[in-house]
Amino acid sequence: MRKALLISVLCLGVMMLWAGNASAFHDGGVAACNGCHTMHNSEDGQPVDPLHPLGNPWLLTDATPSDVCLSCHSTSGSRGVWAADPMIPGNEHGGGDFVFNVEDNINDGHNGGVPGNEIPGYKGGHTPVELSRSVQFPTGDPTLPIAPGGTFNSQWLGCSSCHDPHGNEHFRLLHSVGEIQGGLYTFTAPAPDAIGMTLSSSANETNSNHTAYKSGVSEWCGNCHGDFHNTSYPTTLKHPSGAALGGDVAAIYDAYNGTADYTGGQHATAYLKDVPFEDPAAAVNSTVGPTFTSKVMCLSCHRSHATSAPNAGRWDFDVTLLSEDGEESGSYAIPDPYNYTEQRSLCNKCHVKDEDDEGSSP
Question: Is 313 within 8 Å of 301 (Cβ atoms)?
């Protein structure tokens, strides 16, 4: 009797802990194993995974690790990363939306809408292996078997390639040094130091509410992509990453306030969410511009999940004016942060090469 009572009390305690700490689902201590795993590879007497009728290799409740993640993180609430419609992406929290993977064309360069010139949506970012949101990628990226610049096999790519589903102390549960995915691959660079904006249902990334990148971003991306921008893959690339901006670029960033006002910006309000930088003093609500020691990083130009621009660009690198985005392809138009019809590439936030363009003014 005492044993039965003890078991009942323990079960009640676990239920109360789960009910009161739903946000801690991944912390490894809430007895929620059955949120992702099934002991007998069955639910209601039926196999849960048609791909593995003799037993899912991880005893998951769905076909792949990413499918399990997307059962909670696709379209539901503020934490959705795969919206239902590529023309209506979810709230932007910094990473981008995987829904753009299913677009038929994201080419907004010249003649991008001409048949034969299409750029399929899966070239707009990472392509996780999954079946629940799209049947197009059961074995990963159709054209890139290996991560550009590195050795990571695209057939392994899923949510758990970057995030630890069991939880850890790092930013967004990112993996750190060591084996990932049961030993399929090993990371040599630690998780980046960053602070994320609150994932509330009404929150959208703004210049005063954004991810604060402090250090280690480019090095962490290099776990899969190598020293991509600082080596000779596939040809000699000139743009540095993980490198200090220097005084001249920092001053340009501060002064640049769009094509229409490229000298009117102020250091105190210079931060642009669409062109973030890395700095140990970064804060989620900071609006200040960079210093000469702040760094350019992979995520200064790219988002980590996907966008409606090729190569997960924060803006489309192929358009002349940001207002042209979406015109050729009919895909989602990435919003112009300056809301100016003649606004040119956001490369100008650091390089100000649009100063002589018609329509710009000092």
Answer: yes
Residues 6+ apart with CB under 8 A from 356: none
Average pLDDT over residues 70-82: 82
How many residues in the chain? 362
Identity of residue 16: M
Q: Which residue has the tokens 């503020």?
A: 78
Report which secondary-structure segment, H or E, holds 67. Answer: helix 65-73
In this structure, are residues 189 and 220 in contact, taking their beta carbons and an 8 Å threshold? Answer: yes
Pairing mode, strands 243-244 and 46-47: unpaired
Per-residue pLDDT tens digits for 222-278? 999 988 776 555 555 668 899 999 999 999 999 999 999 999 999 999 999 999 999
d(CA 191, CA 181): 16
Distance of CA 182 to the CA centre of its chain: 23
| Helix, strand, coil % over all residues of the chain, rounded to 5 | 25, 10, 60
Q: Give me Rg for the CA atoms of the chain.
A: 22
Delimit the domains of the chain by residue range.
34-47+58-72+126-191, 195-362
Q: Name the 3-class secondary structure at 254.
A: helix
pLDDT tens-digit profile of 28-56?
A: 444 478 888 887 777 666 666 666 655 67
Task: Enumerate residues 6+ apart whose C-beta is below 8 A from 84.
Answer: 75, 99
Judge whether residue 152 has pLDDT over 50: yes
Specify whether the CB–CB gap between 270 and 289 falls below 8 A.
yes
Indicate the SS3 state at residue 139.
coil
